[in-house]
Amino acid sequence: MILVNGAVSDTLGAADRGLAYGDGVFRTLAIRGGRPQSWTRHYHKLAWDCDAVSIPCPAEEVLRDELARLAAHEPGCAAKIIVTRGAGQRGYAPPSEVQPTRIVMSSALPRHPAEFVQSGVKVHLCSLRLGFQPALAGVKHLNRLENVLARAEWSDPDIAEGLLFDGEGNVIGGTMSNLFIVERDGLATPDLSRCGVAGVTRDRVIEAAASHRITCRVEQFGLGRVLQAQEVLLVNSLIGAWQVRALGDKAWARGTLVASVRQWLDEEID
Amino acid sequence: MILVNGAVSDTLGAADRGLAYGDGVFRTLAIRGGRPQSWTRHYHKLAWDCDAVSIPCPAEEVLRDELARLAAHEPGCAAKIIVTRGAGQRGYAPPSEVQPTRIVMSSALPRHPAEFVQSGVKVHLCSLRLGFQPALAGVKHLNRLENVLARAEWSDPDIAEGLLFDGEGNVIGGTMSNLFIVERDGLATPDLSRCGVAGVTRDRVIEAAASHRITCRVEQFGLGRVLQAQEVLLVNSLIGAWQVRALGDKAWARGTLVASVRQWLDEEID
Questions:
Q1: Which of A47, A206, B66, B112 meets the CB 3.0–4.6 Å disulfide criterion with B116?
Q2: For residue B94, what are the domain limits?
Q3: B226 with B247: CB under 8 angstroms?
Q4: Both B135 and B60 in a single domain?
Q5: 0.95 cut: is pTM over it?
Q6: Residue in chain B lying closest to A16 (CA)
Q7: Phi-psi region for residue B97, left (φ > 0), alpha (ψ -120 to 50) or beta?
Q8: Strands B121-130 and B240-247
Q9: How distant is the Cα of B229 from the closest Cα of chain A, in angstroms?
Q10: Does the predicted interface ipTM exceed a cut of 0.90?
């Protein structure tokens, strides 16, 4: 099901700035048992991202109602919300009065092999390096060609994700997930102030760690620390948490923190 | 007039990857007297850009026919061609069989004040700094949020364009144009191997300079050299060449090379 500005439709205006320039932002979240998961956080992040690119964010109740329509139709699905700057004349200058376009659509929840959760995942080391753009860092905007190019680096279905680095060799995350490493004295996750997408599940893990009195550092680090970590975890709103089982020649035994992280993510009442 | 995959339409599939990820490329060119200007060059550049992001480029004759349909309808217009990776499932992984979407659309030629050509233009110094992404540098892809944010920095209609720099202080070009500076011993234009869009008109000026035995260096330089240049020119397929009259506190008298560049651009038979 696709709702474009509230109406069932599978098309959108060809002059939309979302197409012309990737001039918009998006969210992907799970609907399970008819209920959007972590909706308050997702809406908060959507509003934040809209603000970062100066697009008026649709009202929370409008989007909540539209998600409810998806959920009535498909109680277990992946929901995607796109908000663009709407239709525009040719040229980069934003229209003086923006009428945002909102697209709320469902698709099947991804069906990954059960072993991805049970035994962990094999990860590709991407050769593409993310560029720095502090004005857009952290924002889940529609300019995602870097992710597309990085994801195109492998086609082996046994490889679940690719690890992305910036031009200075700092690890940033997966192509579609955020990364945590487990070290002797706590967790660490990459600083995303120059590139990358700061996901809702990343925030949830950072906060849950704090509430369980586990240190979680947000900082720059490179491949060396990833390879020496006790556990490496990938998280997002659809997969929850995966442990990395193999990265190049390096293999990890099954860890213990991944189960805790999954429990933290299950516990939260939204 | 908008043609989507050859059919008159003003809509596009909401699941198109052009919208989802900016997963595509585009071209803007002038149709004058019913004839697309510099079409061979534009097609060549479109094919190059498609190749850079591994999207199959539509055949030349297909696009030429579609431009002819626009031209029959509007003999003087701006034509825009968008080629995307087509519809896709959720997720960054490109479909195994890509069916590109092509959109060919016309809009009115921009009507800039006559003084922009006669006396030159006033230019804003953008504060946004372009990020480096060698994998996409030079390509006119649909990930243009940097240009949108930069263009949103001013709304004064007397300011015709904004000048963009990279994070190291090298000038890259205008938000919608390429830049040349005129110095005592020739021309120089920014090296676009790390960011920016290498336009067709830029190529034409570089080649025309060579054929007129005028040196044109393609290299890195910063604001200092721009301010000390005898003339500063902005070029693209719709505006032709504008001389910069004012940039911050710096003002330039009317130069002489801008007229030559306009003549070079008029001379070329395509």
A1: B112
A2: 2-107
A3: yes
A4: no
A5: yes
A6: B19
A7: beta
A8: parallel
A9: 27
A10: yes
